[in-house]
Amino acid sequence: MAFIEARDLVKTYSPKGSPEVRALDGLNLEVQQGSVTALLGPNGAGKTTTVKALTTLIKPDSGSAFIDGVDVVAQPQAIRRMIGASGQYAAVDQNLTGFENLVMVGRLYHLGAKVARQRAKELIELFDLVEAQNRTVKGYSGGMRRRIDLAGALVIRPPVLFLDEPTTGLDPRSRIGLWEVIEQLVNDGTTVLLTTQYLEEADRLADSISVIDNGRVIAKGTADELKASVGGLRVAVTVVDEVQIDAARAILNRFGSGESAVLNGRTLVVPVSDGPAALAAIVSAAATEGIGLHDAGMRRPTLDDVFLQLTGHAAETDEAEKETAA
User: Fold this and answer.
1) Is 150 exposed, middle or buried (0-12, 13-18, 19+ CB in 10 A)?
2) Which helix (H) or strand (E) covers residue 99, if one does?
3) pTM to 2 decimals?
4) In angstroms, rounded to a whole number, what is the distance separating the alpha carbons of residues 303 and 38?
5) Is the pLDDT of residue 131 over 60?
6) How many CB atoms lie within 10 A of CB 300?
7) Where are the domains of the chain?
8) Which of 120, 248, 251, 303 has its Cα between 20 and 30 A from that of 36?
């Protein structure tokens, strides 16, 4: 049995004045102990609802879920003693210092005052917040707030950590710093389930990726397995003028391997059988037809390609889903 296991989860919402929304539609998910599983999917796919169901914040309409053999629905209090969770927005008291926030979390978990302070000190050091520990959180940068929030989720040393878009809004340096902390936690045995809008984040952190669309897992595997599943080389071109997109698409389809070119912004991407020959033919045809290109190139599949082929959408945040599930 997987360390985290969900079977046939269903969750519906009935917003006032709107049709019923089926946020989870028989979702199945497995996460192995001591690993990182990333949930990826387009806007409203069901990622955040999945995390809420597994962390006991909502109750599924049907289906089952277990963490280390403990029933999430039947034993929510036991689950809450096993897990840590960090949402997209830092849930900290801005009027307390970073150190005081962590001590408060420890006391809420019924740790003794001495133990709570000792654990707060350990986490302050782990997250490189020693110099800022006695400053109020309202003066922290975005990256520092994310770190203190994640530290709060680790006060009781949970064997399972749920991260909902942990690095959203962070600058690249802060994002890499948080990735390094997550990697250290996993090396120490923590099991992590994360949702993310950053495909490079899943590429770096995840041992396994589950692609969710319309409340179901539609594909799963390692990043390399998913990339391999969508075929070989791609040719990508970016047109100068949007009015020429249709003409450029026709050229890519002519020299592609049978699948229609996918548009993302002003960039068109098509799978090809013979990369160099297809690239040369596409560039030549575009020049003949007077289509201006900013750039053109050949590349291997990315997780973006996986998204586009499996769901028909680019990866996006789950804002609409969060509003529905609120």
Assistant:
1) buried
2) helix 98-108
3) 0.79
4) 12
5) yes
6) 11
7) 4-222+317-325, 232-300
8) 120
Contact 212, 50 (CB under 8 A): yes
What are the C-alpha distances in Å from 150 to residues 22, 125, 143, 198, 200? 30, 13, 11, 18, 20
The dihedral built from the CA positions of residue 142, 144, 148 and 151, taken in this order, carries a sign that is positive
Residue 304's identity, in one-letter code, is D
pLDDT of 314: 60
> What pLDDT is stored for residue 313 in this prediction?
60
* Three-state SS annotation for 156-202: CCCCEEEEECCCCCCCHHHHHHHHHHHHHHHHCCCEEEEECCCHHHH
Query: Among 52-56, 162-166, 197-201, where is mean pLDDT lowest?
Result: 197-201
Tokens of 47: 């990622």
Least confident of 33-37, 80-84, 141-145, 239-243: 141-145
The band of 326, judged by pLDDT with boundaries at 50, 70 and 90, is very low
C-alpha–C-alpha distance, residues 63 and 46, integer Å: 15
3 state DSSP class of 229: helix
Per the CB < 8 A criterion, the answer to whether 235 and 279 are in contact is yes
- Is 4-222+317-325 assigned to CATH 3.40.50.11260? no
Q: For the domain with range 232-300, which CATH number is right: 3.20.20.105, 3.30.428.10, 3.30.70.980, 1.10.8.50?
A: 3.30.70.980
pLDDT at residue 269 in the model: 92
| Arithmetic mean of pLDDT, 291-309 | 87
Tokens of 242: 């949007």
Cα→Cα distances 222→117, 225, 227, 250, 303, Å: 40, 5, 9, 33, 11
